[in-house]
Amino acid sequence: MRIEDAIIDLGDHQLLLRNAGEEEAEMLLECLKTTCGETRFLVKEPEEIDLTLDDERKFIHNQNESKQNIMLLGFVDGEYVGNCSLMGMEQGRYHHRVSLGIALYQKYTSRGIGKAMIGKLIEIAKEHQYEQIELEVVADNQRAIALYKKMGFEIFGTFPNNMKYKDGTYADAYWMMKRL
């Protein structure tokens, strides 16, 4: 899914949200490896990311051409800060649902960027007649949970031992949803 570039005022800075270009595959893979290494709240360890540049280019192409999915890149003052996405469900009885994902470099958290990204994704989901947005969040990620709640998401369930880290410990996750 493609959108026109969006500029969101963050007070002292502006956030540019736009679709990714296939030429940005390397930057996105580096971001994925870095953000996965900065926090235990994402689904992979950096060394588990084995996508090739060609895989990532195909992914970007498919996201841009999809009718159900969108991936937006965020830039503040020309610097790439992270990305956010919606992944629609194609099956007929699930077509009203969309899943939200977001990843920011840690140095850009707590600056209103995530809130702005989520707000834009909610707007896009409404425009495409989705009825609910869903996400999973690690139960220990209190800052993210507080933001999601502020944005109207509610916890509807817990996935015990949802993630197993390489040190052998586990983390529960919450399933959260917002009705549109």
UniProtKB/TrEMBL annotation:
This is GNAT family N-acetyltransferase. Residues 15-180 form the N-acetyltransferase domain. Signal peptide: none annotated. It holds the Pfam family Acetyltransf_1. PANTHER family: GNAT-FAMILY ACETYLTRANSFERASE, SPERMIDINE N(1)-ACETYLTRANSFERASE. Gene3D superfamilies: 3.40.630.30. InterPro entries: Acyl_CoA_acyltransferase, GNAT_dom.
